[in-house]
Each structure stands twice: as structure tokens, then as C-alpha cells.
TrEMBL record:
InterPro entries: FA58C (IPR000421), Gal_Oxase/kelch_b-propeller (IPR011043), Gal_Oxidase_central_sf (IPR037293), Galactose-bd-like_sf (IPR008979), Glyoxal_oxidase_N (IPR009880), GO-like_E_set (IPR015202), Ig-like_fold (IPR013783), Ig_E-set (IPR014756)
Descriptive protein name: Galactose oxidase
Keyword field: Carbohydrate metabolism, Polysaccharide degradation, Signal
Pfam families per UniProt: F5_F8_type_C, Glyoxal_oxid_N, GO-like_E_set, Kelch_1
Gene Ontology annotations of biological process type: polysaccharide catabolic process
F5/8 type C domain mapped to chain residues: 42-193
Length: 723
């Protein structure tokens, strides 16, 4: 691992900028900068409110040259003059404005660009929508190494990305669709690493980086393929909250557009919440800084709707969607007080009401945290299962079965054998049909605690039965690396991607970090190391699967004036999408599906453009603080009925096929997945489930509500898909 040395300088920064005239660098009729005398710069980037470039060294600008495609005489050179009281100003025009820097010599491993906007009182000329390109020769630019939306404010902006050999750096700023009629740059600072990271396509690939206007702590899939992010009452800060609002961003992976707004509709600071996508496909966000609030996100309308307050105030709780589409929540003593046990309650989408479950006791799932109860009931690993049951796999070493009918019950499920309390670890249901769960890492205490590389394979069967627990990893070794505050995602082929974390858990600290991800293979119970990256992901980071079968890995921080804030995410392309040269493999395509709304137990069909050999459903996810109770994978058996047409059957058990939106993938014989089609899976007739067949469970006074909310759901679904 390389040391964290962001402030090293390659050479004395003198600010010298020379005029250049290169046709290959002047495709838009760029105006060249005039020569500047070398001077001592008065501006040196200071990263006081965001994470500095990892191992980044400020590139000496003595030999640098700069030019722009837009601006008045001699303006362009001001972006590199070392004086933050001057700035380059573009023309007043709604278009793309380009500024390009020639670093003067090849072989820099460029890893970041810092941009200081004009330090004007009227907040004009701010660059928000942008792209950054690198080139070795000034002719071939390729795809952007980072793009997105910077916050619309006058502070220092930063884009970090994987180190790449380059001599030329280009910033493209777009004023179309923004509040700015012109853009400006006071200082453009470029960083490089003293090393390169060898690239091996068989291990996957990182990039591009997605720059965001907030520090994203929570994230959720939408049925459209868009991604919703949110932070807290402020874009970079969770404490000192006035309450009542949340900074949000939204990204469309197809077009790349990013939007930003502050949500006040639900009067809810949604930091440290429970997150679940209910059986209707609605995102349910509970508690957090505003500890009793519930917010419902209708992604069809891009609208937040006030939900009913919970019966108990909570923060850092977990929630999970159960077999009839309702949402169960338990724990959460981080906010709302810790003197009372935060026992379970359940949300019904039909009545939009919460019901206490006094028998669903939280005490059996507490960890033995040195800081006590306010940490001990956090971030439960919950899995909705058969007959209104919920399996709690961790983070406590004691596992439990919860039943959410009637007044609720809890039944011990035994220890996670050979493991310890594993707070801020991860748990993923990678094969719901077989009841397979993988648990990964964590630490005995929330903070000031050493992480483990422990991995366990848990197989659950019928509710209240003792699960089978095995050590995951060949020869009982677990993961290659010890991790806490990491994240994990199940992929369409059933493998599990693990990224980020650190070996010693300490919030808002970026030491002892893990930069090499891993991949778990169920077929031989092994972990392999993947492509190392250069962006830190620790406390408040996350990963989520995208519809194109890549992974978005991002976030970290949210601590105000601290050096752990990450306003970004990074795309990881798994090896199954790449050939030996790093180019994209040919991938199958789903032409059509038997329906955009299917039912558990139903037979469906898929038409593809080529032969495929397997398929899988993966439920849309929502995640924060290492927890994603929504994601799970169901492998599908395909029966070929004609050329490129296949039949499949959805499992008839709604505890396996939890109602809601799912991504449907097909894979060819090489294991290359398609882009997903999103379908809604609903509970059909005859799937009502009552109490367990156990004397200690009690009677079920709650009858499943799915049928009674079907009309509203069908109407919503029709709006979304244009029915």
C-alpha cells in the first residue's frame, strides 16, 4: 500500500505559462495564452473539506502551457498564474467551454484535477456540469476519466480518478442547462502519483469517476435505471442539523445527466436511516437525524411523499421488506435515545401505517459493543424469508429468526460459528433459491476496533430451523484482506464483489485502507483479488449494482470541514465484461420479456439476440452504512423453446421472490451478462402466508395486504411503463 502523501511537490511551483500553437490542440479555434514571467504563486490548494488526492503530488507548472477555446485576450493564462485573485473567464454563451493544459513533458501519472472557481462575491462563473479528459499526444482523448456535476458554490472543486499516463489535461465545462451564462477558472491544479497501477483486464477495470454535488451516504436503484443519492441536511455535513431537509442528487447512467436539489417535502433529515424498497416498488426511508420520520420516494414522479411517523424514534436501524411486501424495522439507538429497547415494528404500504411488534425483541441481536446499547443495535443484517419471517444473520455473533405476524416473535438461530461480533461488516444473499448468504468482515466494536477477514457461508431453510454455517474461503482463510466499513454486491453470475474498507475501524479516518477489491466464487468457495484502485472508500461508503452489470462504488465522509469527504463514485467493470485487451466483450441482449409485470410462480419467456445459457433476477437495492437488505439474487433455469427464445419459472415462494422491482439478466456461455430489463414481481393468488408451524410463534392476526393494494400499484406501474 502506498503512503498517503498528497502534499508532495514534484518541483518548485513557479507558475510559468508559455504561449503555444498546436493545431491538434486547437480544434475549436482556441485562443492561445501569452507568456508569463515566473513568479511565486500566492495560491496553493488546501484540502480542508474533502479528501485530498490519494498519494497525489502537485505537478510543477514551470513548463506548462495553457489555452482555451473561449475568452478574452490573455485571459487563459490566468488559470495557471498561481494567483487566486485572477481568473480566466469564458465568453457569455450557453455552450461547452474548453481549457487544455500541456504539462510540458510526458509520463506523468495524472490522478486528479483541482479547480478553484473565481472568488467573486456574486457566485458567477461557477462550473458545475463538466468532463475531464487525458491524452498522451494531444490528439487522442478517449472517454472522460471523470465527469459529472460539481456543487454550485465557490469552494475548491476536485476530480480524482485512476492514475493514467498523460501529458495533456482537458477540462470541458458546459453551461447549457445551468444557471451560468459564462464560466471561469481562477486556478487549475493537476496532481499525479509517483507510481502507476498495472492494469490487468482479467481482474476488471476502474473508471470513470462520477463527480457528484453531494457527499453521497445513501443510494438506491430506481426502476428506470436511474440512481438516487442523498446525504443529510447539508451536502457535506450530518451533525448540527436543523432538521427537516435532505440534500439529494440523481444520475441517469444512460445519458450521464446529474441533477441536484434539497428535499423539504417530507420535513426529514434522512441521514443514517433505514432503507427498503417495499412490495409496490416505493422506496421507504425511515428515521435517522429526524428520528421518527418516514419518507416515501416515488421514482416515477421523482417525488418525495410524507409517510407516517414510526412508533419509535430510530437512527442506524435496519429495515427489510418481507414476503407480503410490508417493511419490518428493528434497532436504531444511535438517535432517538438509547434508554428503551428499540424492538420491531412494521410498515404497511396499503394503510400507510406503522404497527408495533412488541414480541420482536431487539435484545437477542445486540452486539457486545464497548460503547453500549446506542451502538449495539445498529445496522442489522436482515433477510426477508418465508411465511413472514426475517432471518437476522448479524452483525451480532448470535443469529435470530424474527416473525412479523401478530405481535411478532423472536427465536434464537444459534451462533455464527467461529465468528465474532462483526459491526459494519457486510452480508449478501447471493442465491435466494438455495437460501445462501455470505457474511464478510466487520469488527467487534463500532469504532476503535480491529477488522477481521472472517467470511461465513450461511444456508437457511425453513423458518426457525437452525441454519448451516460454514467458513467461506479455501482452507478456511476467509477473505484476503481484513475489512470494516466496506461494501459488497452480488453480481448476475452469482459471484460477490467486495470493495473498500480499512483494517482498523475509525469513522472519518483514512488510514489503513484497503484498495484491492475481491471477488467470491461460490462454485469453489474461493476469493480472488481484483484490480487495485486509487480512491479510498471507508466510513459511509457503499456499492450498488447498475443495470449494465457494472458496479458503482462511492461515497465516504460527510463530516463538514474534514479531509474524509468524497463527492464522487467510481464505476467498476467486472472481468466478465472485458476481453484480454480490456475492450468490452460482445454481450447478449434481451429483446423482449413476456411481461413487465410478473407474479411469483409464473412461467415467463425471454427473447434474446443470441444464444444464452443462464439467467438471474437481482432485486433493486438501496443501501447505507454497509447495509443493503434489498439486494438478493435468484438463479433461473432456462428452457430453450425456439431460436433465441427461452422459458423460465419464477419461484413460487414470495419469501424467496420478495415482491418489488427486479433486474433480469441473461448470460451467454462465456458468462457475459446482458444489460438488465426491469420487471415488477407481484404476489399472485394462493400465496397468502400465515403463522409458522411452531407452537412458540403465536397466531397471526395480520392478513396479507397485497391484493388490496393491487389497483393502485397497477396504476403506478402503468404510468411508469407507459401503459
Amino acid at each position: 500500500m502506498w503512503p498517503h502523501q498528497p502534499y508532495l511537490i514534484f518541483a518548485a511551483l513557479t507558475g510559468g505559462v508559455d504561449a503555444i500553437s498546436r493545431p491538434s490542440l486547437n480544434p475549436l479555434g482556441a485562443q492561445n495564452a501569452s507568456s508569463l514571467k515566473a513568479d511565486i504563486p500566492s495560491y496553493d490548494p488546501s484540502f480542508t473539506d474533502q479528501s485530498p488526492p490519494y498519494s497525489g503530488c502537485l505537478v510543477d507548472r514551470t513548463d506548462s502551457k495553457v489555452f482555451c477555446n473561449s475568452g478574452s485576450e490573455d485571459e487563459c493564462k490566468k488559470a495557471l498564474d498561481g494567483d487566486n485573485s485572477t481568473y480566466w473567464r469564458s465568453r457569455d454563451k450557453k455552450t461547452s467551454h474548453v481549457i487544455t493544459v500541456d504539462l510540458g513533458r510526458p509520463a506523468y501519472h495524472v490522478s486528479a484535477v483541482a479547480m478553484l472557481p473565481p472568488q467573486c462575491e456574486d457566485a458567477q462563473g461557477l462550473i458545475t456540469q463538466h468532463k475531464i479528459f487525458l491524452s498522451e499526444d494531444g490528439n487522442n482523448w478517449g472517454d472522460p476519466v471523470s465527469y459529472g456535476m460539481w456543487p454550485e458554490e465557490g469552494r475548491l472543486k476536485l476530480s480524482t480518478f485512476e492514475p493514467k499516463s498523460a501529458r495533456y489535461v482537458r477540462l470541458v465545462a458546459d453551461t447549457r442547462g445551468t444557471n451560468q451564462s459564462w464560466v471561469g477558472v481562477s486556478e487549475l491544479s493537476i496532481y499525479a502519483t509517483p507510481y502507476t497501477i498495472p492494469q490487468n483486464p482479467s481482474l476488471g477495470a476502474w473508471g470513470p469517476t462520477l463527480d457528484l454535488p453531494i457527499v453521497p451516504v445513501s443510494v438506491a436503484n430506481e426502476a428506470s435505471g436511474k440512481i438516487a443519492f442523498w446525504s443529510s441536511w447539508a451536502q457535506d455535513l450530518y451533525f448540527s442539523t436543523p432538521g427537516g431537509q435532505t440534500a439529494m442528487s440523481r444520475w441517469d447512467p444512460t445519458g450521464g445527466h446529474i441533477s441536484s436539489r434539497v428535499v423539504t417535502d417530507t420535513h426529514h433529515d434522512m441521514f443514517c436511516p433505514g432503507t427498503s424498497i417495499d412490495g409496490t416498488g416505493m422506496l421507504v426511508v425511515t428515521g435517522g437525524n429526524d428520528a421518527e420520520q418516514t419518507s416515501l420516494y416515488d421514482a416515477v414522479e421523482d417525488k418525495w411523499i410524507p409517510g407516517p411517523p414510526m412508533r419509535m424514534r430510530r437512527g442506524y436501524q435496519s429495515s427489510v421488506t418481507v414476503s407480503d411486501g410490508r417493511v419490518f424495522v428493528i434497532g436504531g439507538s444511535w438517535s432517538g435515545g438509547s434508554s428503551r429497547s428499540k424492538d420491531g415494528e412494521i410498515y404497511d404500504p396499503k394503510t400507510r401505517s406503522w404497527t408495533k411488534l412488541p414480541g420482536a425483541k431487539v435484545d437477542p441481536m445486540l452486539t457486545d459493543d464497548t460503547e453500549g446499547r446506542w451502538r449495539a443495535d445498529n445496522h442489522g443484517w436482515l433477510f426477508g424469508w418465508k411465511n413472514l419471517s426475517v432471518f437476522q444473520a448479524g452483525p451480532s455473533k448470535a443469529m435470530n429468526w424474527y416473525y412479523v405476524g401478530g405481535n411478532g416473535t423472536v427465536t434464537p438461530a444459534g451462533p455464527r460459528i467461529g465468528d465474532e461480533d462483526s459491526m459494519s461488516g457486510s452480508a449478501v444473499m447471493f442465491d435466494a433459491l438455495a437460501g445462501k448468504i455470505l457474511t464478510l468482515g466487520g469488527s467487534p466494536d463500532y469504532e476503535m476496533s480491529h477488522a477481521t477477514n472472517n467470511a461465513r457461508l450461511i444456508t437457511i431453510g425453513e423458518p426457525c430451523e437452525t441454519p448451516q454455517v460454514e467458513v467461506a474461503g479455501q482452507n478456511g482463510r476467509g477473505m484476503h484482506y481484513k475489512r470494516v466499513f466496506h461494501s459488497a454486491v452480488v453480481l448476475p453470475d452469482g459471484t460477490v464483489f467486495i470493495a473498500g474498507g480499512q483494517t482498523f475501524g475509525l469513522a472519518f479516518n483514512e488510514e489503513n485502507v484497503q484498495l484491492t477489491p475481491e471477488l467470491y466464487f461460490p462454485h469453489n468457495n474461493s476469493f480472488i483479488q481484483l484490480q487495485t484502485n486509487n480512491l479510498i472508500r471507508v466510513y459511509h461508503s457503499w456499492s450498488i449494482l447498475l443495470p449494465d452489470a457494472t458496479v458503482l462504488n462511492g461515497g465516504g465522509g460527510l463530516c463538514g470541514n474534514c479531509t474524509a469527504n468524497h463527492y464522487d463514485a467510481q464505476i467498476f467493470t467486472p472481468p466478465y465484461l472485458l476481453d484480454s485487451k480490456g475492450d468490452r466483450r460482445p454481450r447478449p441482449k434481451i429483446i423482449s420479456v413476456s411481461g413487465k409485470k410478473l407474479h411469483v410462480g409464473q412461467e415467463g419467456w425471454i427473447r434474446t439476440d443470441s444464444d444464452v445459457s443462464s439467467a438471474s433476477f437481482i432485486r433493486l437495492g438501496s443501501t447505507t452504512h454497509t447495509v443493503n437488505t434489498d439486494q438478493r439474487r435468484i438463479p433461473l433455469s432456462l428452457k430453450k423453446v425456439s431460436q433465441h427464445k427461452y422459458h423460465f419459472t419464477i419461484p413460487s415462494e414470495p419469501g424467496i421472490t420478495i415482491p418489488g422491482f427486479w433486474m433480469l439478466f441473461v448470460l451467454n456461455a462465456d458468462g457475459t451478462p446482458s444489460v438488465a430489463k426491469t420487471v415488477l414481481i407481484a404476489v399472485g393468488n394462493g400465496s397468502d402466508h400465515g403463522p409458522y408451524d411452531h407452537e412458540d410463534i403465536g397466531s397471526d392476526s395480520h392478513k396479507p395486504t397485497w391484493q388490496s393494494w393491487k389497483p393502485a400499484l397497477i396504476e403506478q406501474f402503468g404510468q411508469w411503463f407507459g401503459y
